[in-house]
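Chapter summary example: a protein plus PBG.
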Amino acid sequence: MSFPIHRARRLRRSEALRGLVRETRLTTAGLIYPLFVCPGNGVRQEVSSMPGVAQQSVDKIVEECREIESLGLPAVILFGLPETKDPRGSSSTSSSGVVQRAIEAIRRAKLNLLVLTDVCLCEYTDHGHCGVIENGEVANDPTVAILADQALSHARAGADIVAPSDMMDGRVAAIRTALDAHKFENVAILSYAAKFCSGFYGPFREAAQSTPQFGDRRSYQMDPANAREALKEVALDLDEGADMVMVKPALPYLDVIRQVRDRFDVPVGAYNVSGEYAMVKAAAQKGWLDEKRVVLEILTGIQRAGASIILTYHAKDVARWLKAC
Ligand code: PBG
């Protein structure tokens, strides 16, 4: 049976009808807002390629967290711009590091917010790679040991969830072991399991001051052409003890998000990364796109593809727009 018995337009006639049959409902419950913590006091330095996003000192971060909580967002993820960098990213494990202090300050403020941390070395190494360098290469196993220390220091400061983004092999197992050995068995791991080597991280590297000083990240981040390998990465991280997995970036990898969703029964996240954000912001500033409309469409698309958790710089705007609806 088809037309004229079936008329697909019947269910599109009013907002009430469209709302009734809507398959994907975007809410704030799955959104995570990224924050960049820098040294100092009273510092708020806008990131030029990411309008609305800033590097901020701990006091300002807490202020922003109050706003984030009041908007009904459930979580933030912290990135650190440390006071000092060295070849081994030593400052990443310090209990008095910027991220560790920010976690403690957010905890002290008693906010109803989940605190996630990005676990990686690239913001802390003077060469900007995500691991330590040996014989001209990023050395896997020595890096994993430092990452485990870093995750532990975040847990000690009060993080709820640690999110390793380095793409070293075996880091999830090492982090799980370190956390459990110190009675942090309830700290969860959200693994950046399928992280692709992407041009879309450009603005983030300005925000996090983490551009590699030589070479690129192709020897550890994934080849954008590989979806089957992404499933393998996810399976390995789950075997090692990841509680949730993430695909990153989001928009060029919606097929990967869908396959991970279909294949594995764990919460799936996606990172709507800095370059994806910057493109929308730039076009909107020029008047070429309707920002609210495209952002809601993009996030709905990412969720429809299978991601129930979305890390996005648009989170605060989205929360405001959804409130106004
Ligand atoms: C690495 C890390 C990166 C991002 C999150 N964690 C950058 C990279 O791998 O180069 C990118 C996030 C974004 O672009 O918004 N610690």
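Key point: The chain has one domain: 25-324.
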